[in-house]
Design goal:
The chain is an alpha+beta fold. It is built from 16 helices and 9 strands. A 4-stranded antiparallel beta sheet has the order 1-2-3-4. Strands 5-6-7 form a 3-stranded antiparallel beta sheet. A hairpin with a 4-residue loop joins strand 2 and strand 3.
Length: 413
């Protein structure tokens, strides 16, 4: 469950409760911070439960605007951790690696998704054995972590090609596991102030093999053929995806208030990374997109969903799959093959066009229309490197076209 008190915006929307009851956020087993909203401002609290006995204390005034000198959410956690240590009579000296991993998994579950938390838990459970889990975080050494990392890789150094490839894959996998463990230890270091010896342990180098991209870009005709088979709310959703390059989850979360027809922008947000960091951006819109969004939001309240299903409800997880499948199959009946969206085999991988391909279409179309790649990356919330990896052919054609403008630089000399 996402935190209700980790940002100034979220805290401002809370309702005042009688008798100063806080809204609590669990930090780890028996430990929590809480926020009490008052008529003017509020107050942070910390709660510690040991052997069924509860202790609560005020830890300071909250930040009401950035940089006002009061306690931010992270500041409140830091101050609460110091109070917990004082009450428990310890400086977290008895905190084990197993407890550290469990607390980190809870943090991922809170800030990201249950699936991400479960993947983290299962991978670390598989590779961190019981004896390793019992080790104290305060006593861990870089050598111990490095030895643990090395045990995940077979020791044989055979000249056989298959064994070399297996070893490379094992090193690649151990790097991912090491990254998860270091993320858990970094979280513990943030909470308890440990000496981060794990920073000295580096991942294996030269083992990452780039994935072969299997992106098959939709054409203008295919997108138009698809939209002809869509109706109502799903038509709106698909068209906005093609016009903005927004991800499905981003578009589902957006409200009418996120659309600014004056500034001609659409504010989108998404959770990225294992820690669930929220990233936001303002998508700059074309005139066509602005007019379309105006037409579908003119009678909506500011907090109403930007895009809705035919029943007026917000689109939810995976609800795009069924109408997409229906519309795609309908295009297969078109007389002209260029107006169909068939399953294709790309580099040996069978792939059916999916909703995300509308984002691919928007990015490739923008590049081919001459929009600088850095602006496309910024507008779509991705990196230039990712665009060049995924749309290599498109970006090469774009770059070639740009340099063709230099024709005649030295005349006919």
């Amino acid at each position: 469950m996402a935190s209700k008190i980790d940002t100034i915006s979220k805290r401002s929307k809370l309702k005042m409760k009688g008798h100063g009851h806080p809204v609590w956020e669990r930090i780890s087993k028996g430990k929590a911070i809480g926020y009490v909203k008052l008529a003017s401002g509020g107050v942070w609290r910390a709660r510690l439960v040991v052997d069924g006995k509860e202790s609560i204390t005020d830890i300071g005034a909250p930040e009401l605007k950035e940089g006002d000198g009061n306690l931010s959410h992270d500041d409140a956690i830091q101050k609460a951790m110091k109070w917990f240590a004082q009450v428990e009579g310890t400086t977290n000296a008895l905190y084990t690696l197993g407890e550290c991993i469990d607390d980190y998994v809870e943090k991922v579950k809170l800030n990201n998704t249950n699936e991400a938390a479960e993947q983290t838990r299962m991978r670390l459970k598989k590779h961190v054995d019981a004896s390793m889990r019992k080790k104290l975080v305060s006593k861990l050494t870089a050598r111990e972590i490095e030895n643990w990392r090395n045990k995940m890789v077979p020791k044989d150094d055979d000249d056989d090609e298959e064994k070399r490839e297996a070893k490379r894959k094992a090193k690649d996998s151990s790097n991912r596991t090491l990254s998860m463990l270091k993320a858990a230890l970094n979280y513990a270091q943030k909470m308890g102030g440990y000496n981060p010896v794990w920073h000295e342990v580096k991942p294996f180098s030269g083992v990452k093999r780039g994935k072969k991209k299997t992106t098959e870009l939709l054409t203008d005709r295919q997108v138009n053929a698809l939209l002809k088979e869509c109706n109502g709310g799903f038509y709106n959703l698909c068209k906005v995806a093609a016009l903005t390059g927004g991800r499905y989850k981003e578009l589902c979360k957006a409200n009418k208030s996120d659309f600014d027809p004056v500034e001609r922008t659409l504010h989108l947000s998404t959770l990225k990374g294992g820690g669930g960091e929220e990233r936001t951006r303002d998508v700059h819109l074309s005139d066509e997109t602005v007019e379309f969004l105006k037409s579908i939001t003119k009678d909506k309240l500011p907090n109403a969903p930007l895009l809705t299903k035919d029943d007026g409800e917000r689109w939810k997880k995976s609800e795009q799959f069924r109408p997409w499948h229906k519309a795609r199959l309908a295009t297969l009946k078109n007389e002209d093959p260029l107006d169909r969206l068939p399953e294709r085999t790309v580099r040996g991988v069978k792939k059916k066009p999916c909703f995300y391909d509308l984002r691919h279409y928007h990015i490739s179309y923008s590049i081919m229309k001459g929009i600088p790649i850095n602006l496309v990356a910024e507008n779509c919330g991705t990196s230039i490197k990712m665009i060049e990896q995924t749309y290599g052919k498109t970006t090469k054609e774009y770059k070639r076209e740009q340099y063709n403008r230099l024709g005649g630089m030295v005349g006919n000399a």
